[in-house]
Amino acid sequence: MTRRFDAFPYLLLLPAALLTLTIVAWPLFETFRLSFTDASLRSTEEYVGFANYVEIFEDDFWEVIQRTFVWMSLSVVFKMIMGVIGAVLLNAALPGRTLFRVLIMPPWIVPVAIGVFMWSWMYNGQFGMISGVAQKIGLLSGPFEFLAYKQSAFIATVVTDVWVGTPLVSLYLLAAMQSIPKEQYEAAWVDGASRFYRFRRITLPLLAPAIFTMGLLSAIWTFNSFDIIWILTEGGPRGATTTMIIDTYKTAISRFRFGEGSARAVMILICMTAFAAVNLALMARRGRKTGAGK
């Protein structure tokens, strides 16, 4: 008996498929196409082959790639550390725990532009809070413009990105932490295990899959983060905070070199695909080891 083909489920999926093709597949294809042209504000464009990609690596693009991964790595590592600490504190049986869970949300709820503008005021050397407090306690002898120097500007953008992203990481890990069976903690407590031992031997191993998943998502979001750096420094001073996404924007939008900008966008896609593939492979390997251990 042959089974009759039912097209109705595919018709239901058709609007979503068309939307995906419109807003994802077509722009992606167009980006690849433009990366092989000299497209600009001119009405005509010519095919230039791999010239845009060759020009990328003749510039200081390797420095931009290295800076991007350093910026992303620092930000994600500190988000994960602060997120784990925040999740542990929010999960503790303390008075006012619900209030603390609500108060951790503003950095994530407040529009990023408003929050970053607030940080730009705090970094200001003349009337910023950070410089003022540092002078009061004797760490600085005078006003210090954090966004005017290469190293301090780089650190400032990392700190701001960590502030924006930590609440989401904390709440995600808190949800994962609350799914850990309480019986395991009770058994360890009966055996006389300390808090740190329970955290190291129960919480962290069972929280590891959530940490890996959130770390990968956070890395992708941080890698493509534009607004924080652009509002604070616009990639300066002297390119100290220019990441791949900032460099692509400056090339394609500020200098109207759409072909070169598209080639840089393709490089971002390749880097993120490779990064995600490596992380997913590590997660799968860890999962196989965990399954074999059981």
The CATH topology annotation reads as MetI-like fold
What order do the helices and strands follow? HHHHHHHHHHHHH
> What can be said about the biggest beta sheet?
none
Name the beta content range.
under 5%
Number of strands: 0
- Number of helices, where a helix is a run of at least 4 consecutive DSSP H or I residues: 13
Specify the structural class. mainly alpha
Average pLDDT level: 87
Kindly provide the radius of gyration, computed on alpha-carbon positions and rounded to a whole number of angstroms. 24 Å
Classify the helix fraction into a percent range: over 70%
Overall form: globular
The CATH class: Mainly Alpha
CATH architecture name: Orthogonal Bundle
Low-pLDDT regions: none
Q: How many domains make up the 3D coordinates? A: 1
What gap, in angstroms, lies between the N and C termini? 44 Å
CATH superfamily: MetI-like
Provide structural commentary.
By secondary structure, this protein is mainly alpha-helical. The protein has a single domain, classed as MetI-like fold (Orthogonal Bundle), CATH 1.10.3720. It contains 13 helices and no strands. α3 packs antiparallel against α10 and α12 packs antiparallel against α13. The longest helix has 36 residues. The chain is globular and about 75 Å long. It starts with 7 loop residues before the first helix and ends with a helix. The mean pLDDT is 87.
Q: Secondary-structure blueprint of this entry?
A:
Elements: H1 8-34, H2 51-58, H3 61-91, H4 97-103, H5 106-109, H6 112-123, H7 129-136, H8 150-178, H9 182-190, H10 195-223, H11 227-232, H12 244-254, H13 258-293
